[in-house]
């Protein structure tokens, strides 16, 4: 079973119920002759196991900004840029980038990641960073942070009692509990296969890092 199939076996029946309800309502209000003339389309059928994944799918992002940033975040970034660029040259030293990331409360990165990040915003090695490139870079960091929070929220569906999400583990018992809560009857061997696919270190459970990897690879986030 692929990671995509794993993900599809981890989600809520809410969307399916709404869609099916809407289809039924439309059918009831449409004359029989008109229904006969309507081309038949293939309808996807949600399998019991597939509905676990919809529960873990992200909710729509809130608006109120441009791109991945809110107006307040853009204003804060502009203010930081202008503070560093006191001579109004239109750029800042690339070496000040970590300082700006910390000031915005974004996650720190490993030295290897910093090398990659700096190369992405300054591929020619000028040592300078203009505002537009800085905003694009920070926008991506905010997007990653929001995405991680969404995945954490999804993880909590399986481990609601966990205080330290990044060190918690999803077990077979957790999958059985959630599937039962959703009213789905999924065989234990299928649930165990889901654990095995995501369990990189063969611990018999799924940690947050593995869960995040599968969710991102599945395209849900």
Descriptive account of the structure:
The chain has helices spanning 3-8, 14-29, 32-37, 51-56, 71-84, 97-103, 111-121, 131-158, 172-181, 188-198, 208-218, and strands at 65-66, 69-70, 91-93, 128-130, 169-170, 206-207. The protein has 221 residues and is mainly alpha-helical. The strands form three sheets. The protein has a two-stranded antiparallel sheet. The relative contact order is 0.15. Residues 4-51 and 59-66 have low confidence and may be disordered.
Question: Which helices and strands, and how do they pair?
Answer:
Blueprint: H1 3-8, H2 14-29, H3 32-37, H4 51-56, E1 65-66, E2 69-70, H5 71-84, E3 91-93, H6 97-103, H7 111-121, E4 128-130, H8 131-158, E5 169-170, H9 172-181, H10 188-198, E6 206-207, H11 208-218
Question: What's a concise summary of this model?
Answer:
It contains eleven helices and six strands. The chain is mainly alpha-helical.
Whole-Å distance between the termini? 20 Å
Query: What radius of gyration results from the CA coordinates?
Result: 23 Å
Total number of strands? 6
The major β-sheet equals: 2 strands, antiparallel
Low-confidence stretches: 4-51, 59-66
What shape does the CA trace take? Answer: elongated
Mean pLDDT: 76
* Discrete helix count: 11
Strand content: 5-15%
Task: Label the structural class.
Answer: mainly alpha
The run of helices and strands is: HHHHEEHEHHEHEHHEH
Residues in helix, %: 55-70%
Which strand order do you get reading across the main beta sheet?
1-2
């Amino acid at each position: 079973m692929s990671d995509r199939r794993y993900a599809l076996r981890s989600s809520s029946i809410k969307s399916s119920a709404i869609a099916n309800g809407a289809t039924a309502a439309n059918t009831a209000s449409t004359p029989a002759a008109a229904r006969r003339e309507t081309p038949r389309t293939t309808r996807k059928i949600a399998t019991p196991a597939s509905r676990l994944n919809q529960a873990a799918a992200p909710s729509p992002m809130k608006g109120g900004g441009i791109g991945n940033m809110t107006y307040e975040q853009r204003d804060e970034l502009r203010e930081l840029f202008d503070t560093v660029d006191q001579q109004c040259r239109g750029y800042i030293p690339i070496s000040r980038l970590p300082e700006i990331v910390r000031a915005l409360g974004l996650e720190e990165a490993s030295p290897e990641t910093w090398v990659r990040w700096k190369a992405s915003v300054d591929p020619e090695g000028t040592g300078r960073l203009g505002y537009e490139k800085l905003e694009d870079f920070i926008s991506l960091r905010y997007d990653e942070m929001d995405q991680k929070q969404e995945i954490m929220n999804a993880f909590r569906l399986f481990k609601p009692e966990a205080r330290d999400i990044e060190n918690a583990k999803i077990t077979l018992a957790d999958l059985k509990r959630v599937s039962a809560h959703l009213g789905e009857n999924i065989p234990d061997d299928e649930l165990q296969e889901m654990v095995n696919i995501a369990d990189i270190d063969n611990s018999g459970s799924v940690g947050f890092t593995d869960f995040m990897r599968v969710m991102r690879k599945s395209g849900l986030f």
